[in-house]
Each structure stands twice: as C-alpha cells, then as structure tokens.
Amino acid sequence: MASVRRRLLPEETPSEDPDIKNLTDEERKSIDAVIANNKSNFNAHTIVWMIAAMMVFNYLDIANVLYNDARVKSDLLQIGSYMIGVNLAVGAYLVFYLSYIRGKRDWAAHTHPALIPVATLFGVVGGVVVTVALWPVWGFLTPPILFTLFMGAVMFVSLLPF
After folding, report:
1. Distance (Å, rounded) from C-alpha 19 to C-alpha 46?
2. What are the helix (H) ranges across 10-114?
3. What's the predicted TM-score (pTM) here?
4. Per-residue pLDDT tens for 54-85?
C-alpha cells in the first residue's frame, strides 16, 4: 500500500515549468493579449463534430434503438452507463465542486491525485462495455458511431460558459 501511495503523491522535485509568479510586465501583457483574442470557443471542428453527432443520432434513431431494440444487451448497457456515470461524477466533483465552489486551483496534484486514474479507468472500461452492448446492432460501425457521439458531446460541453 505504501508503494501505491508514494507513486500517486506528487514528487517534491522542482518542476521545469516556467514560474508564472516571476513574469515581467511585458510578458503578462502579451499573455493577456493572447487570452483576450481567444475568447470564442466556436471553431470549425467544434461545429463539424456537433453536426456530425446530431446527424448520426438522428439518422440511426439511437434513442429508439437503446430503448426498444431487442439486439441490445441491456444488462451490459446499464453497467457501461453506470461506469460512465461514475466517470462524469468524478469529473464534476473535481471541476465544478473543487474548482468553482471551493476555489482550489491545483486539485489534480494536491487534493485527490488518485481520482483522475480512477475516473479514466471507469470511463474507458465503461466505453468498451457500451460498445460490446451495442455491437449486435451496428457491428463494426459501433466504435465510429460511439466515437462521433462522444466527440459531439465533448464539443458541446466545450461551448458551455464555465
């Protein structure tokens, strides 16, 4: 247990990242100018992914397939959905609760270092389980279909005003 704890705790060695506390006024002004010019999250790839996800969702009638198609392995779909739900809950805890409500900015390294690998594991395994659950319906097209829906959801979330 001690080796796992040592591996997950941040190291005390000095980092090679630039120290943002020691920036000159000119460097701060140039960074602020770049940030001011990049306020919009609307990019061509964002819109393309969202339109592609909407078209796939509508054309394949995914809502109807998930609820009414007998070929869907519903027990695996539920397990995969719960695992993805755990992934989203951990992400919401880290991003919304710790960052916005508690005001912690470096939660990844100091507050809960083990939560990111746990969320990643649940997300990847949940995605694989959902793919297996929907494989009888679309076969080899299941991974590209789910990836398109995933990317559309990610691009939609990137447009939310946080």
Report:
1. 32
2. 25-37, 44-59, 62-68, 74-92, 107-110
3. 0.71
4. 999 999 999 999 999 999 999 999 999 999 99
